[in-house]
């Protein structure tokens, strides 16, 4: 097949209407935003939540270079030296898991950009040490359906059946696809592989939807989902999970997403006019 070449006019057209990702603000702006928001996380578990919420917000606003900077910020000690390998691997694994789950809420293109920005910032030893297996591919369709429906119900009950019927009315494939492929194959965890806690998954959802803007009903639903995360997995649930799944925790997630969004893209117009 002969190679295709785009005309100059078409190439120019593709550069218009914000074709590029959002550039990272100056380093001192990110340092200030990351430092001030991380200081609100009072326990190591909440620092992990801070990292998951922050990377989700940056992915949503489509600033992959900021994600790379976040990784460097999160994996340096007080003297700006890299932390030990296990700590860097843990941070990278948490960030990429939060990032891939954002695909449900913000779409695949931004998720590709964000994960690429993270990957480019990783050191070679971290890339080599990150897990390569994919337990999700080992799960059967039946398992994905069961896990997906279980997670979906934990977010939307007592309105699950009504919501599924509404989604089904929009398109006959829609409800089943959301339950099996989004909630089952991506958002839920494969048994024995706790990629991200139920609570952190809801925190990622809230952050992504808050940073997206214009999706108020979905944001409200996932705030309720965060509040209902308490008790979903009692064996692995921590005190930090229980705090996040409270109104105070939900307010913290929203305020964190707002602060990071404002630092990278500026405040919304209605706020800027005040």
TrEMBL record:
Signal peptide region: none
Superkingdom: Eukaryota
InterPro entries, A to Z: AhpD-like, PTS1_Protein
PANTHER family per the UniProt record, alphabetical: CONSERVED MITOCHONDRIAL PROTEIN-RELATED (PTHR28180), PEROXISOMAL PROTEIN 2 (PTHR28180:SF2)
Protein name as it appears in the record: BZIP transcription factor domain protein
Protein source organism: Rhizoctonia solani 123E
């Amino acid at each position: 097949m002969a190679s295709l070449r785009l005309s100059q006019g078409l190439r120019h057209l593709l550069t218009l209407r914000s074709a590029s990702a959002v550039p990272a603000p100056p380093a001192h702006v990110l340092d200030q935003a990351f430092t001030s928001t991380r200081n609100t996380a009072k326990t190591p578990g909440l620092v992990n939540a801070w990292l998951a919420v922050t990377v989700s917000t940056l992915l949503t606003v489509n600033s992959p270079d900021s994600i790379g900077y976040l990784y460097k910020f999160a994996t340096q000690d007080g003297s700006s030296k890299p932390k030990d390998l296990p700590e860097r691997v843990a941070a990278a694994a948490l960030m990429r898991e939060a990032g891939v789950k954002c695909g449900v809420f913000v779409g695949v293109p931004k998720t590709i950009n964000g994960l690429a920005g993270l990957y480019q910032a990783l050191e070679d030893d971290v890339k080599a040490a990150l897990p390569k297996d994919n337990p999700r591919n080992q799960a059967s369709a039946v398992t994905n359906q069961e896990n997906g429906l279980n997670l979906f119900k934990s977010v939307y009950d007592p309105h699950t059946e009504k919501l599924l019927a509404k989604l089904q009315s929009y398109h006959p494939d829609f409800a089943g696809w959301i339950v099996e492929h989004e909630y089952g194959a991506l958002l839920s965890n494969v048994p024995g592989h706790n990629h991200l806690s139920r609570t952190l998954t809801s925190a990622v959802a809230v952050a992504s939807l808050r940073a997206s803007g214009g999706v108020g009903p979905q944001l409200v639903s996932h705030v309720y989902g965060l509040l209902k995360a308490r008790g979903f997995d009692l064996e692995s649930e921590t005190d930090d999970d229980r705090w996040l799944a409270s109104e105070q925790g939900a307010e913290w997630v929203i305020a964190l997403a707002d602060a990071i969004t404002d630092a990278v893209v500026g405040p919304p117009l209605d706020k800027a006019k005040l």
